[in-house]
Amino acid sequence: MNKIKVMSIFGTRPEAIKMAPVIKELEGHEGIESVVCVTAQHREMLDQVLDLFEIKPDYDLNIMKPGQTLSEITSRVLLGLEEVIKEVKPHMVLVHGDTTTTFAGALAAFYQQVKVGHVEAGLRSGNMYSPYPEEINRILTGRLSHLHFAPTLGNKKNLLSEGISEESIVLTGNTVIDALLQVVKEDYRFEDARLNHIDYRNKKVILLTAHRRENLGGPMINIFSAVKEITEKNTDVEVVFPVHLSPQVRRLAYEILGEVKNVHLIEPLDYAPFANLMAKSYLILTDSGGIQEEAPALGKPVLVLRTETERPEAVEAGTVKIAGIEKERIVALTEELLHHRQTYEGMANAVNPYGDGRASQRTVEAIVKHFGK
What we know:
seven-stranded parallel beta sheet; 13 strands; WecB-like; isomerase; UDP_GlcNAc_Epimerase_2_dom
């Protein structure tokens, strides 16, 4: 074996963000030939990240279709990757996290008897339907993987409890911290003028994100109603909500928050402006998974708009609290952070459990070691 051929497969914006530093590390290693294949499960949002990190895919399946179902995504990824893997003949396929592309990519590699490396392995919520379908995607990908890159000790323990051999688990930290530290700038200026005109010094800016399938309907109505009440009670609060492209999310957002003073409904942001908006915000309300890892690295308290999280390390560390999906609790926890400095400082200054920005380096070193280089 002259060089280890590693093919990275991803399809969504969060995967791209977290895989970008790994790909750059792979490209910089003289003993590795790096191949990149994107499925474009999310086309537009994916391309933004590829441009930011200057990654040019070798293969692009371009599977995205309006209103695509999980079954359609899975089948198109499987069929598309079969031909790519046969052509590339990689020694290892790398997949990330918990998307449908992740599971289908691991399964496609297994069908070709190619080894799988799972970046961000071992996350578990304990509820197979929350997050849906991500929880099962993680578990199934884990059963197909040869190397498991676990961000935290808790993730490693989850894998061990499922019978994964300790020799195949590598404790790395989370690659999102590697990516984040590359793009946040003290003097960052936004393209959207509204974001530059917000008084981040004297206003308490809340960044809101909401998009989870399991929150559609009643839970999302509760979330948006809570945000409306918070802004009505606190004149020094401004909310910025990059509204997800989902038609259901957008309809509810504009119905409930569209006319609310001090709520800025904006289009989804590219990764660099979003990361810098996190850095400038006072606190964050989110049902996202990745933000629970990123915001603590920036010293920003996070209230999770879900009933459970597969990132319990953040809760244990004190950087994150589970706010749930009931209006009264969301309002109460937000009010506490807005008005009790000690509570706020306790969360803002807690130690981030997700690493030191060297996860990508550890990942690549483990791959090289695995192949005896």
